[in-house]
Each structure stands twice: as C-alpha cells, then as structure tokens.
Amino acid sequence: MRIVVLTKPVPDPAVGTERLGPDGRIVRSGATAVINGNDEYALEAALKLAEAHGGDVTLLAMAPESAPETLRKGLAMGAHRAVHVTDPALAGSCALSTTRVLAAALRTQAYDLILAGVDTSDGTGGVVAAGVATLLGLPYLSYAARIEPDPTAGRVRVRRLSPVGYDELEAPMPALIGCTQVLGEPRYPSLKGIMAARSKEIAALSLADLDLDEPVGGDVATSRLLASEPPAARGQTQVIREPAADAARAIVGFLESRRIV
Length: 261
Known about the structure:
Layout (H helix, E strand, L loop, with lengths): L1 E5 L2 E3 L21 E3 L1 H17 L2 E7 L4 H11 L3 E5 L9 H12 L6 E5 L10 H9 L3 E11 L4 E8 L2 E8 L2 E5 L11 H7 L4 E4 L38 H14 L4
Parallel strand pairs: 1-4, 1-6, 4-5, 5-11, 6-10, 7-10
Antiparallel strand pairs: 2-3, 7-8, 8-9
Helix pairs in contact: 2-5, 3-4
C-alpha cells in the first residue's frame, strides 16, 4: 500500500519566537522549524498502516529551501522517501495556491491513501486537505480517529470524530484522510532511524516540474493579513480562599456583578 503524508515545516511552537514581518507574513528565516504537530500524528498513522499491510510512506511538503533539514525527522521516524516542492515564487502563498501546488505534485506520485493533519500551527485554516481532495476528485474522510483500509477490496473505513460521538465512513481508494491526534502518539526516531534518514531520498520539485494551469504563489494570493494586534492585557485576578459555602456565595456574587448569571 502506497501512502503519501502531507507534511508542513512550521516554526516551532514550543520556542515561541514566531513573529510577523512588515508584509504580514510569518518570518521563517532564522526560526527553528519542526514538522507540524498534527502532521506527525498523520505520519504515525501512515507508518502503522504500512507496517500492518505492507507498503511505503512518502512525505510531501511545499516549503522553503531549508525544509530538507526538517523533513529528515520524518524520514528518521520511518518514512521511506520525501518529495519537496520549493520555488521562490511560492513565498507568501495563500491556502488556494498551496492546495493547487500540492494537488499538482500529487499527480506526479502513485498512492492509495493520502494522509494529512487536520490543520497547521502556523495557519490553522484546516482547509488545504479538503481542497486537495476536491481538485483530485478523491473521497475526503475528515477527523479520523481510526483508519481501517482493505487493500484487497480497494476500500477504506474511517471512524470520524463528531460532536455527538463517532461516524463510520467508508470510501473507495485512493482517498484522502484528515487525521486527528486520537490516532496515536508519534514515535521518537531511533538512532538507527536517524542514521538511515541520511541516505533516504528527498526529491526536489519546482513549479516548472508541475503541470499547473493557473498562477500560484504570493503575487496572486487571494487572502492577505491586513492588520494584527496583541491580545488585551490580562485583568486583575481575584483569589477566593474562604470555606466551600462562603466561596460559592462569593463566586455567585462575582458572576452576578458581571451579569453572567
């Protein structure tokens, strides 16, 4: 079974040094980059499926030139190869351009399943995976908490999280699946995996290598950040230390004073 995992290098949220440039774009140069957290969960699910059913896992990223350093972690976790789409014209791409480029890149690959995280920590839009499925004419199974492919029958079943529990979805393969963290904690790369990652292929593609009928990139972005401001300063806190009955009355009084109850 051939699985492609959509993977995005993002500024490390744990470092907390993300900032916006004068153009409203995230400043990526000099920032510590990691694989987007939700994409790591998708990769873990892909690796488990490949181990259970046989096959290989390919990472696909649209990212700056420095991305291979970040993608090596995914290869160290167990992915077999990576495809890196990079081009100076792609800087500042909107979700629509990203969707078009990833769909075009996937047309150059063979796959039975495409897995993606539900969103990214730097954009949080959560629309690219659905857009890619639409452009490729694939079934889109979102918010997966369990993935059960049947390669022999050419079908896949997904347990999808819903506000009231779970939905059971089934679709023919190939299909694109949006993955949640319920699928399981990503593994840590082993020393053997880290050493093996050094020799694994990272194929580079530019816009010239893709069959794109429409312009893409920052110059044709359909959305732009117009303004931003920091959140309001945290207000003064009130700590209640009275016994339970008195504390309850104090809390109710506090809420009433703000017309919350």
